[in-house]
Amino acid sequence: MVCFLIGMAHQGQSSNGKEKEAFYRMLEDDEAEDGSINFGESFIDPYSVSIERQRMNLDPERGRKYIYELLHGHDVQCYNIIRMYPPVYIQLCEKLKDDYQLKETDNVSIEESVAIFLNICAQNATQRYVGKIFGHSQETISRKFHEVLSALEKMAVDLLRPGPNELTQPHPRLQSNRNYWPYFKGFIGAIDGTHVPVTIAGKDSEKYWNRKSDTSINVLAICNMDMLFTYAYIGIPGSAHDAKVLALAMEGPHQFPTAPFGKYYLGDSGYPLRPGFLTPYRGERYHPSQYDGASPPSSYKEMFNKRHSSLRSVIERTFGVWKGKWRVLREKPRYNIHVQRRVIAATVALHNFIRLSNLGDVDFDSDHPTGNVPTEDSDSDEDEEHNNTHVHYMEGIRDQISASLWDSR
């Protein structure tokens, strides 16, 4: 079951689409090395057209030397530049070549193409700056960036899905933790939404404005206890709240990994209590910060909320690692909105690939605290909980867990 989707809802192509594409091309072409825009460079002095200009950056040997130093230099230097250690990087290049048809050309190897893409995403670097590093023209950098992007999209389809028994069998880490087992025996993952800033111009930008007065995409994701993404719904404008994004993901042919009977995802109060989704008690302390330095849980509802928050925090830690690794997710990239969606999907695939490599990674090993990701506001609609029968069923499960936790304190 494929659980990866670039959300295409409300992406209607406007009549001025060509003008917007031209604008973004001009923006990318006229970027200065410091990221500023110099529109004056777009205009040619008619008295200087006879001057012969030398082509910039054309030194393919520079890129080959760069890759050699990346692979044979200090591992930390490689990690800081492309956000993975050399063995993982080599595995990634082989995977994209063997399974997703990424090809080399006369002057650009597969290793170089992948490093170009990783450099841009890790540092949110301009193509002009990366061109100087690798000794290629901006046209070559752009072409290689999109070739790797297409290959990573294909990889995302394969990597963003639950394991064979993940929706039916309890996770070993769940069973080995006495704080959660056997109370949350129906747990199969944590679900949440996070905002990724995007660059968008014109009237279309209105629906991308979120409540923090910035333009973003609201990314819905599910992860397991291994901090692996098992589903991602990408593309809904930032003005939509979490419950709305979930409804859109589930109502269409998006291959949402529906929880089997008796199983559920843990979500915060931004989601409705319904079959397949277990949310906390409203009106009670929930977040860990509300218990730090304060009195312990004083009721079965607070006891449930505290354990629920602790178990569900795996999605916040996963978001923290994902966003912390790729700077392009924290700063507005210099591409049109369609490419920005694809970049988000590609970085999710890279996240899973690095995690599955089992070769060690500083970001995963440090297990980022939830503070690495801004806390999303909870704005669920009470009206979502409209089916009393379904609500009562999940309320029964929640009350049963709460009573068991309270009795075992």
From TrEMBL:
Domain called DDE Tnp4: residue spans: 191-352
Keyword annotations: Hydrolase, Metal-binding, Nuclease, Nucleus
Domain DUF8040: 62-152
Compartment list: Nucleus
Entry GO CC: nucleus
Positions with biased composition (Acidic residues): 376-385
Chain segments carrying region Disordered: 364-386
GO molecular function: hydrolase activity; metal ion binding; nuclease activity
InterPro entries noted in UniProt: DUF8040, HARBI1-like, HARBI1_dom
Cofactor(s) the protein requires to work: a divalent metal cation
Pfam families: DDE_Tnp_4 (PF13359), DUF8040 (PF26138)
Highest taxon of source: Eukaryota
PANTHER family: NUCLEASE, PTHR22930
Similarity comment: family membership: Belongs to the HARBI1 family.
Descriptive protein name: DDE Tnp4 domain-containing protein
